Amino acid sequence: MLKWLLVIAVVVGIYYFFIKKKPMLKAEKPTKKEQSSELVECTVCGTFCSVSEAFIKERRYYCSQECLDA
Ligand SMILES: [Zn+2]
What we know:
By secondary structure, the protein is an alpha+beta fold.
């Protein structure tokens, strides 16, 4: 019985060892976010904002909905 507990403990230990390693590999890949943080100038008021937050219409960037409608 004690032998089985030892085997289970080893299996669980190995299981958690590999589980813990996987999230670290994911954290090392922030490649896509770097591109979206690029700053663009608003066509209407000249305010700089990131591409991910900007409104894009006809290949022009706008900082807000108000500038987009203007
Ligand atoms: Zn603007």
